[in-house]
Amino acid sequence: MMLPQGARVLEIASGAGQHGAYFTELRPDIIWQYSDVDTDAQESQKAYACENSSQLKLPLQLDVTQGNWWQRLEPITNIYCANMIHIAPWEAALGLAKGAGELLQAGDKLFLYGPFLFGVDSAQSNLDFTANLKQRNPVWGVRELVDVEELFVENGFYLDQKITMPRDNYLLVFRKR
Ligand SMILES: C[S@@+](CC[C@H](N)C(=O)[O-])C[C@H]1O[C@@H](n2cnc3c(N)ncnc32)[C@H](O)[C@@H]1O
After folding, report:
1. Residues 171, 82: contact at Cβ < 8 Å?
2. Nearest-angstrom CA–CA distance, 88 and 142
3. What CATH number should be reported for the domain whose range is 8-176?
4. Atom of ligand 1 nearest to the CA of 11
5. CA-based nearest residue to 12, from 77, 96, 76, 94
6. What's the whole-number average pLDDT of the chain?
7. Is residue 1 scored above 80 in pLDDT?
8. From CA 127, how far away is CA 107, in angstroms rounded?
9. DSSP class of residue 121?
10. Tens digits of per-residue pLDDT, 143-170?
């Protein structure tokens, strides 16, 4: 089981909100807190939260590039973040790791989903994807796994699992030391 019984999950960058809806349906014991920087995305999250208000919490306005974004939050046991750090400046990854280090306790897990580069062994699809992203915004781009791992290690985590997912994506499971 990836999430502990009764987990309280903070999702960063929830987007449309479909991940929270899916996971809470699978796990009736967990609470899922939506958040996003984008107000349009929050509208979609609100719609899901209204359908399952006992498990899905109305979105928080969180921008992980803002210092101290983690302050004044309810206690959580886990953080989940999918498909954000490549479609945001590197400062978003820095802020995510910093805040996660402040919020989570020893043994707690942070789940980071998305594409990653592996130096010369990178998948061609992700090299093409990162070139496309950089054309759209030069500060975006698929991140090197070594850089992401180093960042989380600096903030008190270790990479516990690297799970291969479809279409050259990965689920990274970081645990707080
Ligand atoms: C590609 S979408 C991914 C949405 C969802 N997690 C998914 O996988 O479908 C990227 C999301 O990151 C959010 N985002 C970008 N920069 C952010 C930041 N600095 N803080 C919080 N969310 C951010 C965007 O608003 C958007 O919802």
Report:
1. no
2. 10
3. 3.40.50.150
4. 6
5. 96
6. 97
7. no
8. 34
9. G
10. 999 999 999 999 999 999 999 999 999 9
Q: Please report, rounded to a whole number, the percentage of residues in the chain having pLDDT higher than 90.
A: 98
Ligand 1 center to residue 136 CA distance, Å? 16
Please give the average per-residue pLDDT across 118-134, as a whole number: 98
Domain boundary assignment for the chain: 8-176
Please give the model's pTM, rounded to 2 decimal places.
0.98
pLDDT surpasses 80 at 138: yes
Q: Distance (Å, rounded) from C-alpha 46 to C-alpha 171? A: 26
Hey, is 171 helix, strand or coil? strand
Is 38 a pocket residue for ligand 1 (Cβ < 6 Å)? yes
Residue count (the chain): 177
How many other C-beta atoms lie within 10 A of the C-beta of residue 41? 18
Confirm or reject: Cβ of 3 under 6 Å from ligand 1: no
Decide: 76 in ligand 1 pocket, CB within 6 A: no
**pLDDT tens-digit profile of 47-104?**
999 999 999 999 999 999 998 999 999 999 999 999 999 999 999 999 999 999 999 9
- Cβ(60) – ligand 1 distance below 6 Å: no
Q: Does residue 144 have its Cβ closer than 6 Å to ligand 1?
A: no
- Which residue's alpha carbon is at the smallest distance from atom 14 of ligand 1? 13
Cβ of 93 less than 6 Å from ligand 1: no
Instruction: Indicate which residue's Cα is closest to atom 10 of ligand 1.
Output: 84
